């Protein structure tokens, strides 16, 4: 489960910004196509935060929907999974959004 | 730019001046815009590895598969068959034991074992350490056998030229649709254990359709690592990669 390592990294990034203060809230963006499950990150978060400046912080996850552009007809295609098909039948899609995995914002006390 | 500092704490709250933070109503907490990729550290180390490899003209290939698809069997054979053409070495990743490194050494090749413990994938820092220990000679090929897992290694760039996805017939023909991230990340698929095609239900067309749906550019080479079928095409693909100049570090 890569979510454990990823959550550790989220906590490390927050600690880096905390500079000795405490973190009250972490806003994390997880794209629908990123291959990372928000529930698994939530499950790991408390454990990873224990004993750090992030302990007790609220984790807020923003899930970004997947969007792509068809390379054949230029149409925009919504993506639920990391692959899909345009209404024109083409499967060659350029991802526009949904692969984000990013610490967006922190609230520092 | 996202680090809070004394200056940021002293100015007005209605700043349109681009400072990346705001205070809440009571002034108790400070909101800081961070906008940092979670995999940023790994990606930077991977870029470092890529530059290190390019500087030495070393080709690194990252072999990924579920456990038991046949990566080590394939490498045992590959290092034997290619050793006369260019120097080859192997970085082995497993959660425990150095069995696979021993198998590769028994095939006459230098090998370093990384034990990842609880981690289910190799990351760029593990490979950076292994590379400096291995010190591959200029013009050589380094095969990295990742931990058997079709999910996590897809997310972690090691600095390799390409991910080689090894998939095997007994795993079933629905793997590309079930593990799309890995098939999207890969540059080539070796469909192994073709010798078992007559013995298990596996529809090759369905497998190829799945690959195409996920990644239309992905090439599939059917092989048998055990018996040697199809390996000539795999070796030609490696030769093409060796001949191609290394991408310079960004
Ligand atoms: N029938 C058959 N068995 C294979 C083939 N390649 C590997 N195996 C067997 O599959 C098992 C797992 O192989 P191994 O190389 O250890 O897989 P790894 O976990 O991906 O490194 C071993 O028993 C191999 O002998 C093949 O082409 N055909
Ligand atoms: Mg192995
Ligand atoms: Zn289209």
CATH-defined fold name of chain B = Rossmann fold
Summarize the helix and strand pattern of chain B as letters: HEEHEHEHEHEEHHEHEH
- The class by helix and strand makeup of chain B works out as alpha/beta
Nearest-integer average pLDDT of chain A: 95
Write out the strand line-up for the largest beta sheet of chain B, numbering strands in chain order: 5-4-6-3-7-8-9
Task: Please explain how this structure is put together.
Chain A has a single domain, classed as 2-Layer Sandwich (hypothetical protein PF0899 fold), CATH 3.30.2320. Chain A is α+β, with helices and mostly antiparallel strands and 109 residues long. In chain A, 27% of the residues lie in helices and 35% in strands. In chain A, strand 1, helix 2 and strand 2 form a beta-alpha-beta unit. Chain B has helices spanning 6-10, 40-55, 71-82, 99-106, 124-134, 175-178, 180-185, 204-214, 231-243, and strands at 21-23, 30-37, 59-64, 88-94, 110-115, 141-145, 162-168, 188-192, 219-222. Chain B is globular and about 70 Å long. Chain B has a single domain, classed as P-loop containing nucleotide triphosphate hydrolases (Rossmann fold), CATH 3.40.50. Residues 1-19 of chain B have low confidence and may be disordered. Helix content of chain B is 34%, strand content 20%. In chain B, the strands form two sheets. Chain B has a seven-stranded parallel sheet with strand order 5-4-6-3-7-8-9, sandwiched between helices. Chain B has a two-stranded antiparallel sheet with strand order 1-2. Chain B has 250 residues and is α/β, with parallel strands linked by helices. Classes of the chains: A alpha+beta (109), B alpha/beta (250). The A-B interface holds A 1-2, 4-6, 9-10, 13, 17, 19, 24-25, 28, 35-36, 81-83, 85, 91-92, 101-109 and B 2-4, 24, 28-39, 41, 118-121, 123, 151-152, 154-156, 180-181, 184, 212-216. The complex binds guanosine-5'-diphosphate, magnesium ion and zinc ion. Zinc ion (ZN) binds next to loops of chain A.
């Amino acid at each position: 489960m890569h979510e454990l390592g990823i959550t550790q990294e989220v906590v490390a990034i927050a600690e880096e910004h905390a500079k000795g203060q405490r973190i009250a809230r972490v806003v994390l963006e997880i794209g629908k196509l990123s291959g990372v499950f928000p529930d698994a990150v939530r499950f790991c978060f408390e454990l990873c935060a224990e004993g750090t400046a992030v302990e007790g912080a609220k984790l807020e996850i923003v899930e970004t929907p997947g969007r792509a552009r068809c390379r054949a007809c230029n149409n925009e295609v919504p993506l639920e999974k990391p692959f899909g098909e345009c209404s024109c039948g083409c499967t060659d899609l350029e991802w526009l959004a949904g692969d984000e995995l990013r610490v967006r914002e922190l609230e520092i006390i | 730019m996202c680090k809070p500092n004394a200056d940021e704490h002293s100015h007005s709250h209605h700043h349109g001046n681009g400072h990346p933070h705001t205070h809440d109503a009571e002034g108790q907490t400070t909101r800081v815009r961070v906008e940092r990729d979670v995999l940023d550290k790994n990606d930077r180390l991977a870029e470092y590895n890529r530059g290190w490899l390019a500087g030495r003209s070393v080709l690194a290939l990252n072999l990924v598969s579920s456990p038991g698809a046949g990566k080590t069997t394939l490498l045992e054979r590959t290092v034997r068959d290619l050793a006369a053409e260019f120097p080859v070495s192997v970085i082995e990743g497993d959660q425990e034991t150095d069995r696979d490194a021993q198998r590769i050494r028994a095939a006459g090749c230098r090998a370093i074992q990384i034990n990842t413990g609880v981690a289910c994938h190799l990351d760029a820092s593990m490979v950076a350490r292994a590379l400096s220990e291995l010190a591959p000679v200029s013009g050589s090929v380094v095969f990295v056998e990742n931990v058997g897992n079709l999910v996590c290694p897809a997310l972690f760039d090691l600095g390799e030229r390409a991910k080689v996805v090894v998939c095997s017939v007994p795993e079933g023909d629905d793997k590309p649709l079930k593990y799309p991230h890995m098939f999207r990340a890969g540059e080539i698929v070796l469909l192994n254990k073709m010798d078992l095609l007559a013995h298990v239900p596996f529809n090759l067309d369905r497998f190829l359709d799945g690959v195409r749906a996920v990644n239309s550019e992905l090439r599939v080479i059917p092989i048998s690592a055990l018996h040697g079928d199809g390996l000539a095409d795999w070796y030609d693909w490696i030769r093409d990669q060796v001949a191609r100049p290394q991408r310079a570090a960004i």
